[in-house]
Amino acid sequence: MSDSDTAAAGDKHSELLDCCGGLNNIDYSKMDLKWMEELLKHINFHDSNFCIAVIAIIFNPLFWNVVARWEHRTRRLSKLFGSPYLACYCLGFVIILLNVYRSHSMTVAMKAQARWEVMDRTDVFYTGVALIVLGTLLVVSSFLALGFTGTFLGDYFGILMDEKVTGFPFNIVENPMYWGSTANYLGLALIGASPVGLVLTAIVAGAYKVAIRYEGRRH
To answer: Is 135 flagged in the annotation as binding?
Structure first.
């Protein structure tokens, strides 16, 4: 490495240290967190509807990942149904029902709790509509690209696609089914001016994030 390269690297390192030092010098106690306090005031975390929705959100990805890996190790479902395709279709149907119930439980929780006047605005409403349109586009296009068995964990049943799907929407975002679903829930929360909907959507995103990391170590 030449002296000029060494000097340049030293300058970049100094800039990085200065940046990190600047972050460390931020007085977080002076940050305005009133909006967070106001949001939390509108949420009843002890409400049974909220608790049921949280359980449904966490249970769904846990269920399908555990069952799919169990099937991959034992082939019990394929043997029980006499066909890996039939077993995959049945698991997919159960997953769909669970997701419908999750959506229902989240909707019930949002309707049961207070709206937030700060969110009750036309621009927020149409942002929610746009998110639902985007989310639906990602979910539907992902399903069409993967097919039923590709969407519902067919590879764990030994049902493999001819080649990796790289077209839309996978060329735009990874895991479009998950993030499209999250966008739908965020859109519903904005349309309903629902603070608890925002919290539940954050839990959905967190659950999917964990599921993605878990599925990345599949097989």
So the answer is: yes
Considering the domain boundaries, does residue 96 fall inside one? yes
Burial class of residue 192, CB neighbours in 10 A (0-12, 13-18, 19+): buried
User: Is-contact 61 208, C-beta < 8 A?
Assistant: yes
Would the pTM of this model clear 0.70, i.e. be above it?
A: yes
Confidence of residue 51 (pLDDT cuts 50, 70, 90): very high
Going from the C-alpha of 188 to that of each of 136, 147, 164, 177, 198, the distances in angstroms are 12, 26, 32, 17, 9
- Can you give the pLDDT at residue 217? 61
Is pLDDT at 172 greater than 50 in this prediction?
yes
What's the CA gap between 152 and 215, in Å, rounded? 13
* Residue 154 in marked binding region: no
User: Is 72 part of any domain?
Assistant: yes
Residue 37 marked as a ligand binder:
no
Task: State CA 179 to chain mean position distance.
Answer: 5
pLDDT the model gives residue 35: 64
Specify whether the CB–CB gap between 134 and 176 falls below 8 A: no
**Domain of 123?**
46-215
Q: Residues near 43 by Cβ (< 8 Å), separated by ≥ 6?
A: 50, 113, 195, 196, 199
33 is in an annotated binding site: no
d(C-alpha 173, C-alpha 170), whole Å: 5
Number of domains in the chain: 1
- Domain-embedded: residue 200: yes
